[in-house]
Specification:
By secondary structure, this protein is an alpha+beta fold. The protein has helices at residues 3-10, 16-31, 106-121, and strands at 47-54, 60-70, 73-82, 94-101. α2 packs parallel to α3 (106-121).
């Protein structure tokens, strides 16, 4: 079993959404010191995790979000802000790309997010 699988198994709840939320909170806590623009992260009731990534072009700042679309449907969304708008109170955040996660198991959802994150940061 993977490390992620062990972590998921150790969470004492049968609710998959709650497991995902707990793990996303833990991931964010570990990564928040590496986030330069916390106040600019996209926000929403269905966004479970958002981490900064390089923009798809040099004039953008990117954010990778894990979003719940419905009870068992999750997507990974790449958001972008133009770097010239970062200092604005409300910069225009645009969705650049979406990846559908065709699995409802917490381990697969978080693994899909981690794989996409690694690709975008160049690992």
């Amino acid at each position: 079993m993977t490390i992620l699988g062990e972590l998921i198994k150790s969470i004492n709840t049968g609710d998959n959404l709650e497991k995902i939320q707990i793990l996303c909170s833990q991931i964010f806590e570990e990564e928040k010191d590496n986030q330069e623009y916390l106040e600019k992260h996209p926000k929403g009731p269905n966004l479970l995790l958002v981490l900064e990534v390089p923009g798809s072009i040099q004039t953008e700042l990117g954010f990778l979000g894990l979003e719940r679309e419905s009870e068992d449907a999750y997507v990974i969304v790449l958001y972008a802000i133009k770097k010239q708008e970062i200092d604005h109170d409300e910069p225009s955040i645009k969705k650049k790309r979406t990846w559908i996660i065709n699995d409802s198991r917490p381990e697969k959802i978080l693994t899909s997010y981690a794989k996409q994150y690694k690709i975008l940061i160049g690992e």
